[in-house]
Amino acid sequence: MLLPLPLTSTTPQPTPTAMNPLSYPMPAGVHAVPEELLDLRPDSEIDYDILHPQPVSSSEKNIWFFWHSGYANMYPYNQRNVRAWHRRFSKSGWTIRVLDRHPGSALNVSQFLDVEDRTLFPQAFAENRLAGAYAAQHASDLVRFPLLLRYGGVYADAGLLQIGDLDRLWSRTVADPSSPYEVVSYNTGGVGGRNLANYFLASRRANPLFARSHRLLLALWGGRTSTQGMSASPLLRGPPLMGADFTDETRRELTDYIVQGQAIALVMGLVDDEEAWDGPRYVAEHVYAIDYMVGSQLINELTAWDGRRAFELMSLRLPREGEAESADQSQAREIVEACLARSFGFKLATGLILKVMGPTLSSLWRDNEGSDDVPGTYAHWLRYATMYWSQDRLPDRLEFQVIEPFKRGPLLRES
Predict the structure, then answer these.
(1) pTM to 2 decimals?
(2) Which band of pLDDT confidence, cut at 50, 70 and 90, is reported for residue 22?
(3) Among 64, 147, 148, 280, which one is most buried in terms of CB atoms within 10 A?
């Protein structure tokens, strides 16, 4: 299903300034965001607003991020990601918040949610005892559902570049009382898959899919301090392990790492008559899922998941006037144009993927500070576009059908 987005403005792209030093080519299918809808103040003023956001209110136009040690301690390329979200969407009524677990921070999760409430968080989170190599990532996982269930809005990883028109998609789906869609996310596995990507989740308050997924996630955590071995829990019997192309050991490790996603998958395939929950039907009727590969992984697909190659291409400079385009420049241009015209976002990934796939564009941007923000490069062209441009159309929705359930019976009954 395609939601057309009629153009309402013919505003040209912004005039080059200190912040916007270059005029990049605009691909077909893309248009400039009117400048009055952008926050173009200096970085220092944007950072102040991010560190001092508006208090929560009845509005559900919240964009939530989490960084364990706080926004000020983020890698600079992640800060640039978050600033772009603020610049692009704050004037459309969205409040961007980066929550943390930093003692004394006004943006500590405890300022927004009761971390001692065992219906919200496992004991290990409340006591700061999460363990393992990916404890910070799992802390982030544990705050997503409670924030969305209480406040609504969007939860996004700090490594997600937003390309498409989030505000228009929200307004036409989740926030539209006449729309059947209650959840927006990316989905892996095509129309047959039931694997929402937890790096982008959008819903109004008290969403029933996320409420059940959170109950299951808390049951999986129990008294644990890490996710190791959770993939083997009888509560998760039904959905296949993640990463079908990998070895069984890697698939178990990957599923442990993204166990929140596995919990969502189980609930999407659950029929629980006692609670009148029909997950397969709910998904087919109420989930607006975007194909994750085109929607958020296109750079990886177009470089065969070779992070070093992606980094090399994105670091190239565009041809200067009168210069011929090299083969590498041509490939880099095609990647950027494809992302801008076809992808709703791009997920810059670190974490377990480094062990499984090797260096990523994200890890190389992290390790080569400033390489993502060099004017005149393809990386900068992409960054520029995430702030100044938007797409003419909204992303296609995967047309889910009602599938056979993974599980029948109560959510927390082992079977």
Answers:
(1) 0.93
(2) low
(3) 148
